[in-house]
Amino acid sequence: MTKLASDTAMVLAAGLGKRMRPLTASTPKPLVRVGGKALIDYSLDQIDDAGIPKAIVNVHYLADALEAHLEKRKRGPETSTSDERALLLETGGGMTKALPQLPDPFFCLNSDNIWLDGPRNVFAELSAAWDPERMDALLLVVSHVRALNYRGKGDFYLDPLGRVARRRPGRIAPFIYTGIQLVSHRLMRNAPEGPFSTNVLWQRAIEEGRLFGAAHTGLWFEVGEPAAIRPTEEWLARA
């Protein structure tokens, strides 16, 4: 059994969910239901199933509703929040604010993720590939054939060593970012103040040859807009 690289996962749940409108007019995106289950519960249940005991969830939009949902959960992980009510900090800023609560390294994932594991769970996949001497972050990526509902051009290339490069304009990249990563505190060094995207830190890591990717061996579902909900439910019903 693979020893997990961290005992804590951060779940990014503070976004406005604009692409999921009108469902998010009165409901935060992490609480939109797919197959009778809130989106964030797919992530939290997978965290619990993997044996990760702690989760940090950042909150901003309709934060009270999200916090109430977390308090009512009947199973792990032990969950605390990082409060962004005063200012939405985006992905990078959200991780920076929560960093005092996070070990080195920590898992980080989007709250709208739905996936099916392959032979190993995704946290074990990342842990098995993790090398802190070479890596600032390790992104879980997925090939187009394993990315259901996805209609984009991909995000990244991986070289033979697993180092990440961005998709070139006008091209199709073979790998899509799943929204799941393993992050070293080194990636977060000298982070900008206030709101900013994790892409700022990733770009520096790419230039230093320290951003890596690991290919997911299971299935992953793009659930970014209302039209993706029914196909996802149908896939899950067959799984």
UniProtKB/TrEMBL annotation:
Residues 9-117 form the Nucleotidyl transferase domain. The keyword Transferase applies. Its EC number is 2.7.7.-. It comes from the Bacteria. Keywords: Nucleotidyltransferase, Transferase. It is an enzyme of class 2 (transferase). It holds the Pfam family NTP_transferase. GO terms for molecular function: nucleotidyltransferase activity. InterPro entries: GlmU-like, NTP_transferase_dom, Nucleotide-diphossugar_trans. This is MurNAc alpha-1-phosphate uridylyltransferase. It comes from Novosphingobium marinum.
